[in-house]
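The following block was generated as part of the benchmark described in Methods. Ligand: iron/sulfur cluster.
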Amino acid sequence: MSKINAFEPRHDWTLAEVEALFDLPFMDLVHRAANVHRAWFDPSEIQLSQLLSVKTGGCAENCGYCSQSAHFKTGLKAEKLMDADDVVAKARAARDGGAQRFCMGAAWRELKDRDLPKLATMIAEVKALGMETCATLGMLTADQAKALKAAGLDYYNHNLDTGPDYYKDVVTTRTYQERLDTLSHVRDAGMSTCCGGIVGMGETRRDRAGLLHQLATLPAHPDSLPINGLVPVSGTPLGDKVLSEGKAIDSIEFVRTIAVARIVCPKSMVRLSAGREGMSRELQALCFMAGANSIFVGGKLLTTPLPDMDEDSRLFQDLDLKPMGSVRAEFVAAE
Ligand code: SAM
Ligand code: DTB
Ligand code: SF4
């Protein structure tokens, strides 16, 4: 059997198999994940995405981790949908800073048809900058997914967030099945999927395995697979729980989650997503070794901070990493 065949994607993972990966001795797990990573990717290349919150706060959903839910008092000021020109200016700056993909996020339960024309303009103009386009706008109908694709949208982000068993402890205003339905509309419209979840919300290892098992048994593995470390936001139920109990996810368990994601979805871009702010350089390096090959850059996620560009440039330089397919190659500052 060739090396590639041994690492061919599978869609028949069982939950028990995924749990067994988590239980491997750490060194064996990371070694195996690194081998899978190297079978499909150049391990020195990291894909860079930049986020912008194009519609902030006041969201009708009750996701227990989210600064933008209208159900919780987080002190965040709600804002209306940004003008396309302002979004494009931010995208141009992101591109000039080295980002390859620009992701527009809206604090909506679902996209409303009345907002489609403005979004279509935004998407088309960002694409015209030569960037990959991504959006995360809540639930979509099949027709809305087709309209976004026609406007030039390459990726749609819609997360499963956690395993099916823990889901009810995270959000009750949207079902797991509704998330799966939106993902299938996105695939049917011919867009690439960006789908992952959050760890560190008080879930068990079995729940983390449950999330990765769901992702690995989708009809198509996500093209991008974000693993978000919970950013604990004061005023949210899950953020407050972590802040009061001081129970952030153990960093070794976080690396295990990245490694298992790499093994079960070998060809996906595994994104070391939210939670990089406050992670040591060494922990980030371990995540890259374990198969993470995508990050958000630019100092800010949607409403919470990220390391600034200079810090990330230094990290890339020290780890001999380079941005994947960047429109601007000199992200890593010359000495
Ligand atoms: N409103 C849309 C939705 O939820 O479908 C899109 C925006 S929402 C903020 C995008 C994703 O960000 C969520 O699905 C969740 O996985 C992640 N996220 C939100 N708040 C987070 C936090 N405090 N820590 C980590 N990830 C978070
Ligand atoms: C994803 O999985 N993570 C990003 C993106 N998709 C939209 C969002 C992270 C948000 C973190 C909290 C915040 O900044 O509000
Ligand atoms: Fe709304 Fe998305 Fe936040 Fe949930 S995660 S409250 S849907 S913005």
